Amino acid sequence: MKRSKIAWVVLAVLIISLLCLSSCKKTEQEEMPQQVNSEGTALNGNQSNGGQCAKVGDYLIACGNSETNPIFYSIDTINDTCAPNCSDPTCQHISYKCPAFISDNQESPIVPIQDGFLMADANTIYRFGLESKEVVATGNYGKLGLTDGINNNLVGDFVTYFTEDKTLEVKNYKTDEVVATFEDCEPSRYGMGNVLYYNDYLYFCRNDAQLVRTNLQDGNLEVVVPSKAYHIMIYEDQLYYTNTTSKQVFRAELDGNNSQKIVDRAIAYNIKDGRIYYAPEAGPEIFSCDLNGRDIVQLTQYGDFPDGVGGIYLFDDCNYLAFTTYNYSKLYTVDLNGEGWKVYTFEQ
Questions:
Q1: Of the candidates 269, 225, 227, 266, which has an alpha carbon nearest to the alpha carbon of residue 247?
Q2: Which CB contacts under 8 angstroms, 24+ apart, belong to 244-250?
Q3: pLDDT tens-digit profile of 178-201?
């Protein structure tokens, strides 16, 4: 009788343990952040041309230069203030625990999620919010610097990175499982915004800006644009990209067919609500046009601001665009009709 009671106790403990493990796994899965894309804006639009600005409530969080290293600044667009994304006045913003500190290990473009954004470096994926930061996942996510192309990108549940042996690896960062590898792949040397995931297809630029795509279920590569493509976006099931030589913006079907020039020249561009916003040069003029390149409107005039355009950012819940300067020392906002200028300087 005594052995029977002991057996029942052991069995009950085992059942409770299994239920707890199941509950923990379920909770962990539910807590994993889901990426979101602003309604009415281009997929990947805010990851191009630097990809270092996100909107959190009424705040913009943007990467800016400091005396020691780039850090995140929180910009209050209601009260027009700008300060490091850290509430500790004694902090030097050089610790991984600091919500203003980015990384010293070649970071990825930032990716929007609910109430914040994700960012990956060579071995960690972080979730940032307004004056908050936490580790989401850890692993090996590549070590190539941005001077050699893209270090890594977050797309859907995946992190993509190029290895030193010319291989692109795609890893599910929630399970830490490598789901696909592609050999003979070198990163495009034309910066960020060259990887995106849409309708089960992974699009990426390799080998000096050849744009390819693959369905991760079968792993077959399909050439979309043979060469000279970068700053890729998708808007209303159409693919947009820039030519590396001419800086012309093209639109095509998702498989690359029916390509046509839309904008004559764009150092930086983005799309929202059927309009393309672009800067023809690194210098100080921004225009908008419709999706066919017509109805061109000049939003800024030469001399409106002295700094070049580093990246153009658009959000669905506000009627302004934000752009960082070429040296990431300032951020400007301007209404979509070219009025209401504001400037924020990144100073500690």
A1: 266
A2: 244/190, 244/209, 247/280, 249/276, 249/278
A3: 999 998 888 887 777 788 899 989
